[in-house]
Each structure stands twice: as C-alpha cells, then as structure tokens.
Amino acid sequence: MEKRTYFITGVAGFLGSHLADRFLKEGHRVIGNDNLVGGYLDNVPPGVEFHTVDCNDLAAMREIMKGVDVVYHAAAYAYEGLSVFSPHVVTENVSGSTVSVMSAAIANKVKRVVHCSSMARYGTQPVTPFTEDMVCLPQDPYGIAKYAAELAVINLAQVHGIEFVIAVPHNIIGPRQKYDDPYRNVASIMINLMLQGRQPIIYGDGEQKRCFSFIDDIVDPLATMATSEKAQGHIINIGPDDHFITINELAKTVAELLDFKLDPIYMPGRPQEVKHATCSADKAREVLDYNPKTEFRDGLQQMIDYIKDRGVKPFRYHLELEIISDLTPRTWKDRLF
Q1: What sign does the dihedral 19-25-30-32 (CA atoms) show?
Q2: Are 73 and 9 in contact (CB under 8 A)?
Q3: Which of 65, 120, 130, 302 is the most exposed place for a label (fewest CB within 10 A)?
Q4: Residue of 82, 71, 80 lying closest to 33 (CA atoms)
C-alpha cells in the first residue's frame, strides 16, 4: 500500500479522531488540527502530529498543511438547531472555515480534499429518502452554511485543479462523541441525562424521523474516498436506508438498555427543524461498496459503555446565544440540561 500524508481538520473531534485511527493503523502519516470547541483532547490518537489551530487561521493552516497528500475536512460547528439563535458563530465556523481550509490546501498543492457535509443541506423535501440529485433546500443557518461550503469546495477545486469528494454522513453515533454539549448529539445527551437519573427532553412530538449511522460504518466508506476514482467529483450520502428511527424510539431504546424508567419531558418544537430526514444509500453502495454492519442497539450500547467508563458530566454551555426571544428553546435560555 502506498503511504500517504493525511491532514484531518477537527482531529480531536468524534469523526476526525476515528479517521485518524484508521489511517495510522494503515501506516500513513497523520497531521491534524482542532480548536477543541467540539472535541476532547484525549480523543487525539497517539501518533497524530497535532496542532491546536483554528481552521479560520489561514496563515497557520497553510504552514501546518505542508507536504500533505489528502485533506479530510471534518471540523465544523455542527450546531443545526442552535444556528437559528447563534447564526454568526456557526456560519463563520462552517462556511468561512471551509474556505480557509480549501485555500490552504490549494496553496500546498494537495491532491484531494474530502469534505464532510451534512444532511442539513436537503432541508424539507417533498419525498424521502433524500437522494444526492435533489435540489438543496436548507432551512436553517447551519444547513445554508454547509451547502455554501460545498459550493465553495466544488468551485475552488475545479478552478485550481485539485480533486474533491463531498461526503454527506447522516447522524453519526458512537464512542468519543461529545456528550456534555447541550446543543447537539441527541443520543449522547439522552444517555448522559439518563445516567444521571434525569429524564430526557424531547422537542415537539418526538416523531421526527432520522437515520443513525454507527461510526465504524462511516469510517470505512470515508476512507475509500481518499483514493477512489469512482468517487472523485461526487457528492455521496452515507447512512443506512433500511432502518429509520424516531426520537421517541431513540429515547425508548436508550432507556431499555439502561433499565431506566422513561417519562420524557416534552417541550415545544424547535424552529426550522426538519421533521423527516432520511437518506438513500444507493450511490454509496454503488461507488463505495457501502455495507453497514452495526445494529442500532449495539451502537447505542457501545456509546453507553464509553460514557460510563469516562464518567457522566454536567452539560457545559460553551457557546453564547446571539439571539434570545420567545422562540429560543428554554433548554438553552434557562440551561435546563
């Protein structure tokens, strides 16, 4: 196997650290950066050349990206619901940071960029599951920023002659996910709450429908994107399309695994939340030989074991609300988690 140098943004985060593990095990050199807003320092695998650098620091990014073959852009302020109330910080650290990463990659003559987008690109569509050829209708600042970031990646890559692949992972779950973050990661929030003996809070009626993807089943197709000729220049959904889960079902399953007496607290729905967000994996199967193997309950159990081992934590409200109004969820205004 040809040895390469991989650069991973957000390498202290959930997805980035697992990608780093994969490439280190294959004997590649791995360099990464993180500002530690969305990850844990102890997520960074030994062997990674780690830099505490923000993606928006273009001068620093150009310097630490020297000699890199492939860039994985996994860093983002992935705060979809919060973006309605903190649009500036989310946009700056989704679309703005992506342009910085692309500029550094082009300056260093990187061969390929694998950009991790989001199902938020789709918004509410007339039919589900979502397919990659749909017209994007993002309906919150996060989704808009993610779609803008994709357009920037495509434009800059084509103009400057570097390869690109855009991955669209769907609701990834698994060990190392940040579980003391009150603004995102619904499965981790529920597990952390129930392990504290507290009831989960559910927005709306809880019948929002999602695909949940275990981390190992995401890393395999993402790693293939580094070299696949078939994937070059494509946008590809990655997520199971045979098992859709409602938020109510998620809470029930976590409670069963924890032997917890469930009595959820229901609160008004969050503005702009997509009700049904499910994807088609047909293209991933065709292009990447995508074949998820982890059962939903097994994935949740691994998350539970990880959080138990690491220890439950109080939730840390580490990002300020830019807009506070009657629409702002009380969970955030009154810090109810």
Answers
A1: positive
A2: yes
A3: 302
A4: 71
Q: Which domains does the chain possess? A: 5-173+212-238 (3.40.50.720), 186-209+242-277+294-333 (3.90.25.10)
Rounded to whole angstroms, the Cα distance separating 159 from 208 reads: 40
Tokens found for residue 219: 């890393």
C-alpha 297/C-alpha 257 separation (Å) is: 8
Query: What is the pTM (predicted TM-score) of this model?
Result: 0.96
CB 211, CB 278: distance < 8 Å = yes
In angstroms and rounded to an integer, the radius of gyration of the C-alpha atoms of the chain is 19
For residues 191 and 197, give the distance between their C-alpha atoms in angstroms, rounded to a whole number. Answer: 10
**DSSP character at residue 71:** E
What are the tens digits of pLDDT across the range 80-124?
Answer: 999 999 999 999 999 999 999 999 999 999 999 999 999 999 999
Pick from 199, 206, 187: nearest CA to 262: 199
CA distance 136 to 123: 7
178 to each of 198, 301, 312, how far by Cα in Å? 18, 16, 11
Q: What are phi and psi of 157, to 5 degrees?
A: -65, -45
Q: How many residues does the chain have?
A: 337
Best CA proximity match to 55, nearest among 117, 99, 118, 86: 99
Q: For 299-318, how does the pLDDT look when each residue is reduced to its tens digit (9 = 90+)? A: 999 999 999 999 999 999 99
* Nearest one of 72, 84, 55 to 115, comparing CA atoms: 72
